[in-house]
User: Fold these one by one.
Assistant:
Number 1:
Amino acid sequence: MKCRQMSMLGMAALTLSFGGLSQAGAATIGSVSAFLLPGFSTGTLGPVGSTPAPNNDDLQGPSPNVIPYSVFLNSPGIMETEFVLANSGGTTEYRFTQTLINNTPNATWTGFRFELGFGTGANFVLSQLADTLQFDSFENNSTATSNRFALTLDDMKTLDWGGASLPRISSATFSFAIDVPDGLANANPSGLNRFTLRQTPLEAGAATPEPATTLLVGCALGVVGLGLRIVGLPR
């Protein structure tokens, strides 16, 4: 288990239990149950469902399990993708490649927050350490990169990006990997074998949102989620 920097806003989440979660194994992504974009945003995702190299975590060379995105964010707000899993045994690593275009009127973005968790909208909760869902790392550092932004928070469950600005009609690319474990139905409040990738653009002049409520016990993390205005599926 890789342990990187954790944010702690307090110990209020101490009552969250890590019991009953699967600690080993992996899952493969079979499909997408929700692809939620804010307002009038549009985008393409996938193909999803092909895993040429299951149980490939930390193998040499780039992961062949690639999930591409291209999204025009035409309105401010949060983007969420919920993935449906099938248990496989082992540890499966997926590489996500994204092009995000700022097409929001009168908005300049100064960063992004990426989070791993369960559920969507007001039901979103951040993943806990015990479920072993995490952004991939090498030698305790994230393998995530961007052509425009730098990582300002490198956390197993949260990546914060900053150090640049993205005015309207410009784009940024992101590449990052996620390690997907078996047994996430035990961690998901819905009981479903799914997880959610949540992405929030940060606007110039706006306060940086606080991370979901967290718990630090050694490197343990527990959470309470933030709300999301859900808009229908993009075309």
Number 2:
Amino acid sequence: MPKINITHRVGRLQDRLAQLERGEEIAKRDIEALLDPAQIKQLNKAQAAQDALRKKHKRPKTEKEKQVIGWKTKIEVRIDFYKQAIAQEQGGMVEGIKKLQQERETKAARIFLDGYFKAEAPRDKWSAGNIALQRAGFDSGYVALNKRDKEIREMEEALLKRFESELSKDEKEQLELLREHEKALQKRKR
């Protein structure tokens, strides 16, 4: 199972918080699955403090007594802790996304260089690197294009648009069907 990154963790913490607020019973391992070891220790300390409070005082009968003593149920402790964890995760979201972007760029560079150095002919090295990037699911546009390549792409796009405008009604319909078929194939591959 893949690791949960920062972009997933906040959403999952919010889902778990909603479950707790609805009063659903959640297993301890599911509560701790989204937390890091330091957060788990803090949660356990908060629950231990409530256990000590329960041994020291009888169960309060009114809300005012609960507030004075600091009495909370396990679910209330978890809800408060999850709210703190969500705030903490959202605070570190920018750094987490930057780290993910850096990891993605590093992976792309490694894949490109592997393809580049495995190419047999000296002329094919850039192409081999770009092909390796595409096979790995990266856009080959990741590698900076030179001026000539940009001009060629623009010319190709202009030609395609011109040719499409000159198609007959039946040919346009066939082209639309072909594009829909290709989209369906791409969805199936994912």
Number 3:
Amino acid sequence: MAAPFSGGCACGAVRYECSAEPLMMGNCHCRDCQRASGGPFVSIVAVPKDALKITGEVKYHEVKADSGDPIKRGFCGKCGSRLFGFPAAPFIGVSAGSLDDPSWYRPTFDIYTSSAQPWDYMNPELAKFPKMPPM
């Protein structure tokens, strides 16, 4: 994947462009991500905070992540599309489903597998971590 890349919400009111290569890509199976996505996991593209330019009105909801740290979930205030996760880290998690071209998304890990649902099929080729991997 070559930067820049872009994406946005379902209605087009929120758009973003990233000027940097992704730091990492993976799937989070924590209960908070399950609730936020309505599915078994959230697929994220982690990018440096200063490389993401966001336009439009983003609404935020802060929760305590499974790690115990706060995380802000960013979504479109008009259509409700989940777009971003702002963890207590120097990166932003961009929802892979919001990319203009999600075909280049290539996860390399599954995290919070201890919370994965028994009916969720996980790619056996990806690295697995019961919680967060060592940073």
